[in-house]
Write a structure and sequence with these properties.
α2 packs antiparallel against α3. This protein starts with 5 loop residues before the first helix and ends with a strand. The protein has a 5-stranded mixed β-sheet. The model has no long low-confidence stretch (mean pLDDT about 90). The protein has about 140 residues and is of the alpha+beta class.
Length: about 140
């Protein structure tokens, strides 16, 4: 097992999401690898996506080190309904499920959608959808 594949994988996921026309059209380019700083205005309530938490487990063999990443992508929206957030979450799911991720280290063997969870946050003002993906990566270094 190696955790050294985590950052290259996150960079690859971020690059694919930022370049995807469907995601860009819905999120207006608001895809982040860290949550944006709160500014206290209407811009805090925009529809956006953030690469979230991950859990990494051993997924190697005696000959090839590798890791299983359970990676979250979170979608946030200020609308009282989930419609915009669900549209963006669906586009992200489609993009990642069909993307050829090319991390700077390692090789993605499998990427699959596992689960999603919707929530109302901040006194029912913000909608959040957490998408969980399973990514198996072999180390090629």
């Amino acid at each position: 097992m190696t955790y050294a594949l985590s950052w290259p994988l996150q960079e690859a996921v971020y690059a694919v999401l930022k370049a995807a026309p469907a995601v860009t059209a819905l999120a207006g380019g608001h895809v982040y690898d860290a949550a944006p700083a709160a500014k206290g205005g209407a811009e805090d309530m925009a529809l956006y996506a953030v690469i979230g938490d991950e859990t990494v487990r051993n997924w190697g063999s005696a000959d090839t080190p590798g890791a299983e990443h359970r990676l979250a992508v979170n979608v946030y929206a200020a609308e009282r309904s989930f419609s915009a957030a669900k549209a963006l979450a669906g586009a992200i799911s489609d993009v990642l499920s069909s993307a050829a991720l090319n991390p700077s280290r390692g090789r993605v063997v499998c990427l699959s959608f596992l689960a999603a969870r919707t929530r109302r946050e901040e006194r029912d003002r913000v909608r959040r959808i957490e998408l969980i993906f399973r990514v198996l990566v072999e180390d090629t270094a």
